[in-house]
Design brief:
The structure is a single chain. This protein has 15 helices and 13 strands. By secondary structure, it is of the alpha/beta class. The protein folds into two domains: 4-170 and 361-377, Glycogen Phosphorylase B (Rossmann fold); 174-359, Rossmann fold (3-Layer(aba) Sandwich). Strands 3-2-1-4-5-6-7 form a seven-stranded parallel β-sheet, sandwiched between helices. Helix 4 (91-100) packs parallel to helix 6 and helix 9 packs across helix 13. The longest helix has 18 residues, at 342-359.
């Protein structure tokens, strides 16, 4: 075999953790060993970013959400490219790719980025996607779990341990390590958000969806303001999504308009993190926690929900402050401790940075993924 031909398949209608993972991976694979093309179901921001990076993209955006013509289109792509491996991401890509690849010589593997029960909160939606996943699972050769927590869930759902590899997502740490830009980023964004230069700023970066627990964060911040007798801190929430109106209403109800800012959807996340004094993660579940890793790389101390894959790298009072999920009082207590103890913030920051630089690099992720590709084809 001269080169390994790989097709990555994903919905790609948004630009979240799975999309960033693919972009990081396909731009880092050794070009002398691998030829990669990404198939997206939508021609949106993600497809555009892939093209900017010089990655070949096929966008199948002429079909509806669950249009069966998508199956025929994928079959045509698979026949045309004749890939050795089809690497899928997300339940829709998994379902249609597994059906479309039947009869081909390609071997299928899936990266599992999250827990379906939290991605699809409505019981009917969860029942449908669970059926889609389980009914096609027998045609999938192997699974990559982005954390030990996800691997455990797969085993609980009947996937044999030998069919699972744990490979942590890798992050390009370079933009977060640009410390020479920190003061300029801090000044510019605080002015934009209406936050005083000398105020202690808590920040979060998330999709505004129920699993992220953001109403709990607003409630916890209100509790902090009631309890804290020093200079009032501020909170910025960067991101967007269906829960934004709920969050804005909650901020108004609690009278927090002067202390809470909404940053909106942004692509300059390193700059946003540089503007913050601490990062708060309030998710009810998290497969891994990209934004926590990015905050750690930015030398921003972290308060995080003790859930899922987060448990594997946020060690309480060592690399961050860990809080039980769904506990606003616990979040308030941890945020107050962050405010009160600058020496703790410094030790958390240094420990977390060392961990991230050792464990969550793109180079490590790429090396482990290539090793698995070769193993599957041997």
């Amino acid at each position: 075999m001269d080169k390994i031909h790989i097709l990555h398949v994903i919905g790609g209608g948004e630009f979240g953790g799975a999309e960033q993972h693919i972009l990081n991976l396909v731009t880092s694979l050794p070009k002398d060993e691998v030829e990669t093309t990404v198939v997206c179901f939508y021609d949106s921001l993600f497809a555009s970013e892939l093209r900017k990076a010089g990655v070949p993209v096929i966008a199948l955006n002429r079909f509806g959400r669950f249009d069966l013509r998508l199956l025929q289109a994928l079959r045509g792509v698979f026949r045309s490219f004749g890939p050795h491996l089809i690497h899928t991401h997300g339940v829709k890509a998994n379902f249609f790719s597994r059906l479309a690849a039947r009869g081909s010589q390609a071997r299928l593997l899936t990266t599992v980025h999250s827990y379906l029960r939290y991605d699809y909160a409505h019981p009917l939606a969860y029942a449908i996607v669970s059926f889609m996943e389980r009914s096609t699972r027998r045609w999938n050769r192997h699974y990559i779990a982005i954390s030990g927590a996800i691997a455990e869930l797969l085993q609980q759902n009947g996937v044999p341990q030998n069919d699972i590899s744990i490979i942590y997502n890798g992050t390009d740490l370079t933009p977060y390590r640009q410390t020479h830009l920190r003061e300029a980023d801090r000044t510019r964004l605080r002015k934009e958000w209406g936050v005083p230069e000398d105020a202690f700023l808590f920040g979060t970066v998330a999709r505004f969806v129920p699993v992220k627990g953001l109403p709990l964060l607003v409630e916890a911040f209100a509790g902090l303001l009631r309890e804290y007798d020093g200079p009032a801190p501020h909170l910025v929430m960067v991101g967007d999504g269906p829960e934004r109106p709920i969050l804005e209403e909650k901020v108004r109800e609690l009278g927090l308009q002067e202390k809470v800012s909404f940053g909106g959807f942004r692509q300059d996340i390193p700059a946003c993190l540089h503007a913050c004094d601490a990062f708060v993660h309030s998710s009810l579940y998290e497969g891994l926690g990209y934004t926590i890793i990015e905050a750690m790389a930015s030398e921003v101390p972290v308060v995080a929900s003790h859930v899922g894959g987060v448990k594997e790298f946020v060690n309480d009072h060592q690399t961050g402050l860990a809080v039980q999920p769904g506990d606003p009082a616990g979040l308030t207590k941890a945020m107050k401790e962050m405010l009160d103890r600058p020496e703790l913030r410094e030790s958390l920051t240094q420990n977390a940075l060392a961990l991230v630089e050792q464990t969550f690099t793109i180079q490590h992720m790429t090396k482990e993924t290539m090793r698995l590709y070769r193993q599957l084809l041997s």
